């Protein structure tokens, strides 16, 4: 595994990992399609390389689960890359779900069913993180229910 010099967080750095060591996110709601946008992404990667590293988390079997970057991995694989730049983050399951959903909702072309499933996954993860399964899962730091937090984020994202 070859390390690059760019430091991110205290424990994070950009490294290159072989494609065969990367695994898709379990129950990933967003489909990777070989369409015209994928061709554009492949052309961009051929010309400029992968500008934004994938975000992955380590698994017990020595592989890495992709949190963000399924399309970049697919495109890189199709044009013959053997390694891709990644940022390795240690995330709990629910943190990984929230991060995966948030990083993918900014994409332009998302079907309503993908979006709905993603919000449902995020809602369930936030409920579990709160540690309670009843009462609408109030976040005691902000005084809001989980579903209100998701709605507020969606509203703010639409303003930007």
Task: Tell me what the structure shows.
InterPro entries: Chromosome_partition/occlusion (IPR050336), ParB/RepB/Spo0J (IPR004437), ParB/Sulfiredoxin_sf (IPR036086), ParB_N (IPR003115). Belongs to the ParB family. By secondary structure, this protein is α/β, with parallel strands linked by helices. The chain has two domains: about 1-90, Alpha-Beta Complex (Conserved hypothetical protein from pyrococcus furiosus pfu- 392566-001, ParB domain), CATH 3.90.1530.10; about 95-160, no CATH class. The chain contains five helices and eight strands. The strands form two sheets. A six-stranded mixed beta sheet has the order 1-2-6-4-5-3. Strand 4 (about 55-60) and strand 5 (about 65-70) form a beta hairpin. Helix 1 packs across helix 2 (about 70-80). The longest helix has 19 residues, at about 110-130. The protein is globular, with a radius of gyration of 17 Å. The N and C termini lie far apart (about 40 Å). Residues about 1-5 and about 135-140 have low confidence and may be disordered.
């Amino acid at each position: 595994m070859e390390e690059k010099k760019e430091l991110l967080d205290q424990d994070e750095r950009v490294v290159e990992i072989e494609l065969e060591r990367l695994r898709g996110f379990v129950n990933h709601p967003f489909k990777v399609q070989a369409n015209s946008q994928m061709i554009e992404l492949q052309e961009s990667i051929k010309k400029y390389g992968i500008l934004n590293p994938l975000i992955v988390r380590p698994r017990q079997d020595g592989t890495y689960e992709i949190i963000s970057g399924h399309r970049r991995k697919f495109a890189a694989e199709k044009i013959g890359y053997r390694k891709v730049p990644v940022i390795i983050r240690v995330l709990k399951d629910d943190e990984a779900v929230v991060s995966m959903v948030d990083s993918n909702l900014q994409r332009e072309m998302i079907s309503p069913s993908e979006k709905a499933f993603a919000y449902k996954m995020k809602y369930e993860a936030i409920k579990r993180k709160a540690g309670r399964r009843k009462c609408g899962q109030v976040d005691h730091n902000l005084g809001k229910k989980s579903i209100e937090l998701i709605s507020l984020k969606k509203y703010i994202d639409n303003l930007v």
